[in-house]
Write a structure and sequence with these properties.
The protein is mainly β. It has 2 helices and 32 strands.
């Protein structure tokens, strides 16, 4: 009896498992209650993303009848009375009702009772008539299926199509996933617009799918499942967990980055001195190794009107760690003129690497316009050997001599551990002259690279005197 009961239980288990397998292999429906599509809105200036904030969340809330057809009612998750669209699907095809509120301002699409938006059964090379988003609204055109493959979501395989609308307004390809919808912009209105082409206003926003969740807030799908975010190629230079220590005229000065501030051109870190005063606003594009200083609204640059300066979306380039040997770019430096700052070109002379906190970072030797024979060294994640983090000392020589040249002595982490020393810039980096017995600066006091006063520097060591770095030889004593 027990044996028979055991066999019956095993058979029932196998039947249930088979039934589950059958269900899991069934086509996933797009129109199903209990799912919520969550979107982000990213604001751009040119090609640079300024900030990303949560946008709408959409879900299906009940059904309705229109023209004899049953549609699912797509609403805002926050207000289910706010109807966005009426959607139905049949045999792998998805349709949106022409009476949907989201389409009421459309003047491009031909008038009909509904529009097809997807056909998940079309194979590569096939086409179907579909509604797409375009800069001027919506239109119906041929949609060509370029590729079909599968993606794994929650242990199941779903069909993913790469499609391209054959339209005069856009030829950008985009992806649609069975049960999820379009991955670019709204899931029920396929399309992908190249906003940078013919863009007269550099400010624009793009809606993008973030994830899909169930009623219990469990994430069923994340856009990162298909488009994982790659690690940026370059190390972070402007960061809150580091302190930059400088020696200026024998005194130590410290800089650190504060909490990022949102400007019209994105988030910028304030560069703070030891008193907490903001000296500049800095940002960086880690994908390109570019570090820039905010130009518009910067108190030090506010009165500058440099229409011909290479300004990228609100900022002036300070470093380009992605630049290779021979590359030239325009930046800013100190000036002895009334404006205090000048435009100049710097050229990458050599590139190698240095290890910082276990990470390989690019080290560039740079030559500055108007400063022949002088060497500047910039290190990814650190900054420049001569000058401030936000303002390298490659401007006018007279301006530097008037205020003293800041020398980066070391960079520390938030716990005070030294992760970079001046000598890591390389041998003789930025050393301008070698003192002899008779070549003593007007300010006779000497300091080591930590800002401590010294009297008898060892021959061959670097020390500070009169706000400048020197290499000690015999006879340099006080």
């Amino acid at each position: 009896m027990v044996k028979r009961l055991l066999l019956s239980t095993m058979a029932a288990t196998i039947v249930c498992a088979f039934a589950s397998a059958q269900i899991s292999n069934a086509a996933a429906r797009l129109t199903a209650e209990g799912k919520e599509w969550n979107y982000d809105c990213t604001k751009y200036f040119g090609i640079k993303p300024i900030c990303t904030t949560p946008s709408k969340s959409l879900r299906f809330s009940g059904k309705t009848i229109k023209g004899g057809r049953e549609y699912f009612v797509l609403t805002s998750s926050k207000n289910t009375a706010d109807t966005v669209a009426l959607i139905r699907e049949e045999d792998g095809k998805v349709y949106v009702c022409a009476d949907s509120p989201v389409l009421h301002m459309d003047y491009e699409a031909p008038q009909t009772d509904e529009y097809q938006v997807n056909d998940f059964k079309t194979e590569p090379g096939g086409k179907y008539k579909g509604l797409v988003s375009e800069p001027r609204g919506y239109s119906v055109c041929d949609i060509e299926v370029l590729k079909v493959d599968t993606v794994g979501i929650g242990g199941r395989s779903f069909r993913k199509q790469t499609v391209r609308p054959v339209s005069q307004y856009t030829d950008c390809a985009y992806d649609v996933v069975e049960g999820i919808g379009c991955l670019d912009e709204w899931f029920f209105l396929p399309g992908k617009i190249d906003y940078t082409t013919g863009q007269t206003n550099p400010h624009y926003s793009i809606i993008s799918l973030k994830n899909v969740k169930d009623d219990e807030d469990y994430e069923l799908f994340s856009i990162n499942d298909i488009y994982p975010k790659p690690e940026p190629e370059f190390a972070t230079t402007i960061r809150e967990d580091r302190v930059w220590a400088y020696s200026v005229n024998g005194k130590e000065k410290r800089l650190k980055a504060g909490t990022p501030e949102l400007t019209d051109y994105g988030y910028y870190y304030p560069v703070l001195d030891e008193h907490g005063d903001s000296l500049a606003l800095m940002s960086e594009w880690r994908d390109y190794g570019r570090v820039e200083r905010y130009g518009r609204g910067d108190p030090e640059l506010l009165q500058q009107h440099w229409s011909d300066l290479d300004m990228y979306y609100g900022g002036y380039d300070v470093y380009r760690f992605g630049a290779e040997v021979g590359h030239k770019y325009r930046t800013i430096g100190l000036s002895n003129g009334p404006d205090r700052y000048k435009k100049l070109d710097v050229t990458v002379v050599s590139v190698d690497t240095v290890v910082i906190a276990g990470e390989k970072c690019r080290r560039q030797t740079l030559a500055a316009e108007g400063r022949p024979g002088e060497k500047f060294v910039a290190v990814e994640g650190i900054g420049i050997n001569r000058g401030w983090l936000h303002l390298p000392a490659w401007g006018d020589k007279e301006a530097e001599e008037a205020i003293g040249v800041p020398v980066l002595t070391e960079v520390r982490d938030i716990e005070g551990n030294v992760i970079f020393k001046h000598e890591d810039f390389g041998p003789d980096a930025g050393v301008e002259e070698t003192l002899t017995d008779n070549a003593i600066s007007k300010d006779a006091r000497m300091y080591d690279l930590n800002g401590r006063e010294i009297r008898n520097p060892e021959p061959g060591t670097v020390y500070i005197q009169g706000g400048r770095k020197h290499v000690a030889t015999r006879g340099n004593t006080l």
